[in-house]
Model the fold of this input.
Amino acid sequence: MEIPSSSLLSLSLVLLFSFVLATSADVHENFVQCLTSHSQNATSISQVIYTPNNSSYTSVLDFSIRNLRFLTPETPKPLVIITPSHESHIQVAIICARNHGLQIRIRSGGHDFEGLSYVSHVPFFILDLINLRSVSVDVESSTAWVQAGATIGELYYSIAEKSKTLAFPAGICPTVGVGGHISGGGYGMILRKFGLAADNVIDARIIDVNGGILDRESMGEDLFWAIRGGAGGSFGVVIEWKIKLVPVPSIVTVFKVSKTLEQNATMLLHRWQYIADKIDNDLVIITNITRVNFSEEGNKTVQVSFISLFLGGVDELFPLMQKNFPELGLVKEDCREMSWIESTLYIAGFSSGTSLDVLLDRIPDPIIFIKGKLDYVNEPISEIGLEGLWKRLNEEEGAAAQILTIPYGGKMSEIPESETPFPHRAGNIYHIAYFVILEGVEFSNRYVDWTRRIYSYLAPYVSKSPREAYANYRDLDLGQNNDKGNTSYAQASIWGVKYFKNNFKRLVQVKTMVDPSNFFRHEQSIPAVSPCGKKRGN
Done:
């Protein structure tokens, strides 16, 4: 009897699926067996291995997922999760993954915009650094060692425990992991005074593709250069950073002044572009732009909030504002004096009186759907250009939108483009980041499409040749590597030059030197190429 072709197709799919499952099961079992057999303490490592058969697997996987776009039944799941409690666990994991063909995903805080620290479309395991989160502060030398699994909040808290006049120029969101944050550059509210987080790294410890543990001296200056801004997941597993702490006064001043379009917000933002990167380096004024209701009838408008941190008292700040930005109409009653550590809570949006202990909470509230993009602005956007942006904020998807502008200048303009892989220095007035953020509702691709429409609209107003982007704000719309890792230099340059400009070439050279087989890879990792420019990797 002849079997119908449709039945043959169904049978083929069943057999193929069964083969894939069997193959995945074999890989996962062999990988786990390798971990236990090659570990110096099989009992110790078995306690930090989670497979789908483990009752804690799902909770461990989901705990550090910060984007609900990647918390769905359809999202690819790891064959194994390892939460190392000792460096030797990482060494064994790398060696066994290479032997058994598993891709590695390295997660410190889980804030990757595209989920690249915990999602892959090829067989993979997650190396979750959540247990490696110690912070050791040395006030006398103004330095600290911080493990890659610590969060920015845990770092800030540890610094404040030891000193009220030391700080670190890292980010605004306290639940972001230090490992990924520093790897991609890492900006925050004192970048105009002290530069990026990566600009203030003085040593590091990394586990390379061979399982060796290297510090700055043993890794060499090329690799040390690459890991400070070349983004995570390309060169090895950074397990610890030694950072330079920076001096701050015992009292700083913050303010937040919000204006709607009816209160001349467009004129004020236009004016802000001419002073934000040129005012005193102790002062940063960022803006947060959203759509709001301004009447009981539900009439909508755009609101621009000017949010500031000044490294000094209000009596010093007020004359600066009167001289440089009188149009804002700041009054002393708008200002609040506090310690630097208290200002981190204020800028992060916590209410007055919130305990510093909130910095130790690794779970953001709420967990959200998010898609974002970022551009660099070299010349002020005209008022007409801003008004076109407001029209797009008034679209239906704009209700979920948030736009942030962060000014540069100061220290950011003093550091050469090639000093670290992060090249966005002199010539940039500010960066503009735009997001759609939703909680408690179903995410759909129309919100992603909205960010793409904004990206298209902003093209005439932002950097060109290349149109620059920020590696810590991953955006797969810019391009991505091939799944199997055999990506050419030319293909990777499509997105790589946007992130790193001329530094991309040196990053590829370093990658080829330290990881020629391209073991550490993901959709936007630095590729390894042969001396004659041919692609490498399996």
The chain is about 35% helix and 20% strand. The first strand starts at residue 49 and ends at 50. The CA atoms of residues 385 and 460 lie 9 Å apart.
